[in-house]
Amino acid sequence: MWFDESGTLYRDTCRKLFVKCDNNRVKEVQETVKSIGRMLGQKAMWIEFDFSDNAQVIDCES
């Protein structure tokens, strides 16, 4: 849920999507998210960047 600049309350179903990319592609990711938002008819899209290079995949079955 969020409020726009006029105070209108919005309640949307959220879907988290995680994307890993090089830091020099942040602008490209922003533009892609904007494009997806337009296709979905969204007024705004939440995007958050974590510039950590420490992401790992851990094998839980071994």
Provide a descriptive summary of the structure in words.
- With about 60 residues, the protein is an alpha+beta fold.
- It has a domain at about 1-40.
- It contains one helix and two strands.
- It has a two-stranded antiparallel sheet.
- β1 (about 1-5) and β2 (about 10) form a beta hairpin.
- The mean pLDDT is about 85.
Largest sheet: 2 strands, antiparallel
The number of helical elements comes to 1
Percentage of residues in strands: 5-15%
Describe the strand arrangement of the main beta sheet, using strand numbers.
1-2
Write the layout of secondary structure elements.
Layout: E1 2-3, E2 9-10, H1 26-40
Antiparallel strand pairs: 1-2
What's this model, at a glance?
The chain has about 60 residues and is of the alpha+beta class. The chain is built from 1 helix and 2 strands.
What brief labels describe this structure?
62 residues, two-stranded antiparallel sheet, extended, alpha+beta, 2 strands
